[in-house]
Every structure is written in structure tokens, then in C-alpha cells.
Write a structure and sequence with these properties.
Length: about 450
């Protein structure tokens, strides 16, 4: 019995210890499960917070993008409005300038006519006096030899300047006709679905290709080919509508029709060429050479001539707009009219004049571009030169023969740009005369 009691006591003690271990295990399990549940809830809470944070970031980004798009659209609208206002202001300035120039020419012509009438009156009076007094043969010859020399100098110079002014006005008319053509083509697009589908892409392709021209022999085959392909497409695939050739050529030409889209794209090409001269050649003058080479080659192509007449006057008209001194047109830099005649540009929207440095850069780029365009040799080509080198000599002459008191900084900027990087070609074409001038 004693052993049985001891056994029972030990058994009860073991059972109690087992129960305690079980309770401890269950408590530990509950603790662990609670800890796991808390960790799961913490992670879920953090995940929800992160998801909410990402949603807020995405929403803020969407709002930012929308605000940027709205701002870009607003800027584009403002820019378009400013461009329209600037164009309207420029057209009005051109109109006023043409009116002023026409009045000046008329006044000069009237003055010439008055001088000639006075001269004839004096000659009649002298002839009558001579008939009465019958002076010697020697006395009659001296006034006959000296007087015309004195009276013909100023009218000759005036006639030369009047001729330059008339030629300048003719190129301004061509530029005006090109603006009218742009409006005409915009109207045609609304009536011709095929033209509407292609014209915008063709314009962008031409301008983009001109912008891709770089220095280096053989590096411009791709942009040149793109320009040629686009212009040929315009000529061959869009023969209608047409416009009169004479409206876009400065000299008298045969009455002929040319595809309007071809003229439109050549105008876009010329505009891009001048932009390259202004924006790129001012910084890197050597870029003017490949641009001028391609421009000269395009306008030399028989595919883009009409009855043998090159349409390069489209490009030259733009030079008359942006750089009149190349053609003997200039004025006083201290006056509004004079600056306009020198090719000074205003800030966007018809604002103040651009800075002296900006004007210098523009003239430098345009001078380099004009040299690159006009100093081209076609001796090894079957094509004829659309703008022979004598135009380069004439530009130099126009600048170097400006009366000393009327020379401006603009003339000096242009003279430097015309000669810089062009000496070798200048001497190749003009030999000893070029050496003496240099």
C-alpha cells in the first residue's frame, strides 16, 4: 500500500507537470499566433499606406502633367498670337516702307525732271547768246566739253541708286507674292484631300532635311536626297493648281505656268536655308558652305526650272528682306527707317530692336551664306549656275563704294563675313582683281 500510494503520488505529480507543460505550450502558441497576427496586420497596414501613398503620387503626377500640358498649350497659343501680331506688324511696316520709298523715288524723279528742264533752258539761253555775240571756236568748245561733265555726275549716281531701289522693290514684291501663295495653298488644302494629306508632311520633310545639313564632304547625301525626292514628288504628283512664273522672277520672263506646290516648297526650302545661315553660320561660318552648295544645286536642277529659268529669285528675295545692304540698300542706324533698311530685326511681337550683338551675328551668318551661295563653280557640271559669282563681286562693290560718311557697322560685319573663309574661291574666280581688292 505504501508503494501504491507513492506511485499514485508520483503519477499525480507527473500529470500535473504535463498539464503545466501543455498550458505553457498553449500559452506560447497563443503568444506566437498573436505576434504573427499583429505582424500580418502591421504589414497589411503598411501595404495599404504605401498603396495610398503611391495613389497620391500618381494623382499628383497626373495633375502636374495636366498643368504642364495646359501651360504648354497656353504658351503655344501665346506664341502663335505673338507670331501673328509680329507678322501683321511687319507687313504694315513693309507697306509703310514701300509707300515711303515710292514717295522718295517719285520726288527724286520730279527733281531730275526739273533739273533737266532747267538745264535745257540754260542751254537754249546760251545758244541764243552765242548766236548774237558769235564768240571764237575755242570759247564755244570749252563749255561744251566741261559743262556736261559737271552736270552729269550727280544724276548718274542718282540713276544708279534709283535702279537699285527699283530692283529691291521688285524682290520685295516677289516676297509678298510668296506670302499670297502660302494663303492660296492653305485654301487649296481645304478643297483637295490628297494635297491635304501630303503638303504638311512635305513641308516638314524639306525643313527638317535642311536642318540636318552638316560640315564634311559626302555627309549630306541623305538630307539632299530627301529634299530632291520631295520636290520631284511635288512637281510630278501635284501638277495642279499652277501659278504664273513671272510673279516669282525679278526680270522679264516668258509667260509660263508652274506647279503651285513646287513653288510653295521651294519657298519653304529657301526659308529654311536662310534660317540656317542666320542661326548656324553665325556661330560656325563653315557650315554655310554645304548649305550654300546644296541650295545652289537645287535651284540649278533642270527638274525645277521652267523653260530654262531657275527659281532662285525666291531665295534671293529673302536675302533682300533680311539683308538689304548686300544689294546697295542702307540707311542711318540711328533712325527707325534706317535700321529697317539695314536689315535690323525687332524682338518678337514687334518689340524693341534686337541687341547689337544679335544683329552682328545675323549679318555675319547671312554674309557667309551669301558668299557660299554665289561663289560656286559649275565648270564640271552639265547644269548652269543659277547665281553666278559676279553677284558676289557686286555685293562687295555695293559695300565698298558706300560714301565714307554713310558706312555703318552693318557694312563692316557683312564685309568681314563675305571675305572670311572665302578668300581662296574669291581669288579662283577673280584672280588678280581679287588679290588687289583683298
Amino acid at each position: 500500500r505504501q508503494r501504491e500510494a507513492t506511485h499514485k503520488s508520483a503519477l499525480a505529480e507527473a500529470i500535473a507537470r504535463h498539464e503545466q507543460v501543455r498550458k505553457n505550450a498553449e500559452a506560447e502558441r497563443d503568444r506566437l499566433e498573436k505576434q504573427i497576427q499583429q505582424e500580418r496586420e502591421r504589414r497589411e497596414t503598411e501595404a495599404r499606406r504605401e498603396e495610398e501613398r503611391q495613389r497620391r503620387i500618381a494623382a499628383e503626377e497626373d495633375r502636374r502633367i495636366a498643368a504642364e500640358r495646359a501651360e504648354i498649350a497656353a504658351r503655344a497659343e501665346r506664341a502663335a498670337t505673338e507670331e501673328r501680331n509680329a507678322e501683321n506688324a511687319r507687313q504694315e511696316a513693309e507697306k509703310q516702307h514701300r509707300a515711303v520709298e515710292a514717295a522718295k523715288v517719285k520726288k527724286a524723279q520730279e527733281a531730275d525732271a526739273q533739273k533737266m528742264a532747267e538745264k535745257e533752258r540754260k542751254q537754249r539761253e546760251e545758244a541764243a547768246a552765242a548766236a548774237v555775240s558769235r564768240p571764237s571756236i575755242t570759247a564755244q568748245m570749252q563749255p561744251a566739253q566741261s559743262k556736261p561733265q559737271q552736270s552729269q555726275m550727280d544724276p548718274t549716281q542718282h540713276t544708279s541708286q534709283a535702279r537699285r531701289e527699283a530692283e529691291h522693290r521688285r524682290y520685295l514684291e516677289i516676297h509678298s507674292k510668296l506670302k499670297e501663295l502660302r494663303v492660296f495653298m492653305d485654301q487649296q488644302v481645304t478643297q483637295n484631300p490628297k494635297l491635304k494629306l501630303r503638303m504638311g508632311d512635305m513641308r516638314r520633310k524639306v525643313r527638317k532635311s535642311v536642318g540636318q545639313i552638316i560640315e564634311g564632304k559626302g555627309k549630306n547625301e541623305t538630307p539632299q536626297r530627301a529634299i530632291l525626292t520631295t520636290l520631284k514628288e511635288a512637281k510630278n504628283d501635284f501638277p495642279q493648281p499652277t501659278v504664273g512664273l513671272a510673279a516669282f522672277i525679278a526680270r522679264p520672263v516668258p509667260d509660263a505656268q508652274v506647279p503651285a506646290l513646287l513653288v510653295y516648297l521651294l519657298n519653304q526650302f529657301a526659308k529654311a536655308v536662310v534660317s540656317q545661315f542666320i542661326n548656324e553660320a553665325a556661330v560656325a561660318p563653315k557650315i554655310a558652305d554645304p548649305v550654300g552648295t546644296i541650295a545652289s544645286g537645287i535651284f540649278a536642277k533642270d527638274d525645277f526650272r521652267v523653260q530654262g529659268v531657275s527659281l532662285i529669285d525666291i531665295l534671293i528675295a529673302k536675302f533682300h528682306i533680311v539683308c538689304p545692304p548686300l544689294f546697295g540698300i542702307y540707311g542711318d542706324e540711328k533712325t527707325t527707317e534706317g535700321r529697317a533698311r539695314l536689315g535690323w530685326q525687332r524682338e518678337e511681337g514687334g518689340g524693341p530692336w534686337i541687341s547689337e550683338r544679335s544683329h552682328q551675328d545675323r549679318m555675319s551668318g547671312l554674309g557667309a551664306g551669301y558668299a557660299a551661295l554665289s561663289l560656286r563653280s559649275f565648270e564640271k557640271s552639265t547644269m548652269s549656275n543659277p547665281y553666278p559669282p559676279y553677284h558676289y563681286w557686286q555685293a562687295l562693290s555695293m559695300i565698298l563704294n558706300v560714301p565714307a560718311g554713310q558706312v555703318t557697322d552693318t557694312h563692316l560685319y557683312l564685309l568681314r563675313a563675305l571675305l572670311m573663309n572665302s578668300e581662296a574661291r574669291f581669288m579662283e574666280f577673280f584672280g588678280d582683281a581679287a588679290k588687289k581688292l583683298l
